[in-house]
Amino acid sequence: MINFWKYQGAGNDFIMIDDRENTFDITDHEKVAFLCHRRFGVGGDGLILIRLKEGYDFEMVYFNADGHLGSMCGNGGRCAVRFAHTLGLFDTDTSFWAADGAHEATLDDQKTVHLKMNPPGEIENNSDHYFMDTGSPHYVRFEKDITNFDAVAEGKDVRYNDRFAKEGTNVNFAEVTGEQALSVRTYERGVEDETYACGTGVTACAIAANIELGMQSPIEIKVLGGILGVGFQKVSEGNYTDIILSGPATPVFKAEIDA
């Protein structure tokens, strides 16, 4: 029997497992995919193991819904922080290890998680889109109206084009809704569908908005599952630091499953 929690961060939902004894087989991709399946399993955009790591409060091991180990997940990271707090691994401030290295985070009195994201490397500024890695690869394109927009079809076209078909990319469509506000929809690789939110995706969109429009930090970003915030410091052109992703991370239920 597998004991687990279900968490969601702005509608991005995850299966959370306390694996501090390292009993979960991370090579069993079929089991992870089954657990994430919304018809036959628990259902989730991903699965996260909390493990111990020397020098840190914990390690976050993240799997995409297709069962394979994934890159950094921002909303998953925020949910991992809230879950690790539930497990008693820290009080208000924490440091943990993820696929893209070390992270720091704070859990405030309102149970909002403020997660420090690693800065992107090279930022591509192309004629109609941006491309950068904010812990996961992200394509960002600005649109006039994303409410009446087929984000799945458009996202799939980009994700499976000649450039990205092999390794995949996450695809974001952003609309300017205010002086310091965006609305974003994201098609995620590994899920191969639109999700209700994507933390690394809104981070990429905020940076792109600063480059494209001069939009200043902090930026409020509406996603299908709620509101997220991204703050940052611009050091120089294309160079960003102190990137903070803020938003809710909420426990939904806990249960066990025979898998």
TrEMBL record:
Q: Which domain of life is it from?
A: Bacteria
At which residues is there a site annotated Could be important to modulate the pK values of the two catalytic cysteine residues? 138, 188
State what this protein does.
Catalyzes the stereoinversion of LL-2,6-diaminopimelate (L,L-DAP) to meso-diaminopimelate (meso-DAP), a precursor of L-lysine and an essential component of the bacterial peptidoglycan.
Q: In which pathway does it act?
A: Amino-acid biosynthesis; L-lysine biosynthesis via DAP pathway; DL-2,6-diaminopimelate from LL-2,6-diaminopimelate: step 1/1
> Which UniProt keywords are listed?
Amino-acid biosynthesis, Cytoplasm, Isomerase, Lysine biosynthesis
Q: Which organism is it from?
A: Flammeovirga agarivorans
Annotated GO biological process: lysine biosynthetic process via diaminopimelate
Write down the EC number: 5.1.1.7
Q: Which reaction does it catalyse?
A: (2S,6S)-2,6-diaminopimelate = meso-2,6-diaminopimelate
Q: Which GO terms describe its cellular component?
A: cytosol
Question: What main location does UniProt list?
Answer: cytoplasm
Q: How does it assemble?
A: Homodimer.
GO terms for MF: diaminopimelate epimerase activity
Q: Which residues bind substrate?
A: 12, 64, 74-75, 170, 188-189, 199-200
Q: Where is the active site?
A: 73, 198
Q: Which Pfam families match?
A: DAP_epimerase
What compartments host this protein? Cytoplasm
Matches recorded under SUPFAM superfamilies: Diaminopimelate epimerase-like (SSF54506)
Query: Which family does this protein fall into?
Result: Belongs to the diaminopimelate epimerase family.
Could you identify this protein by its name? Answer: Diaminopimelate epimerase
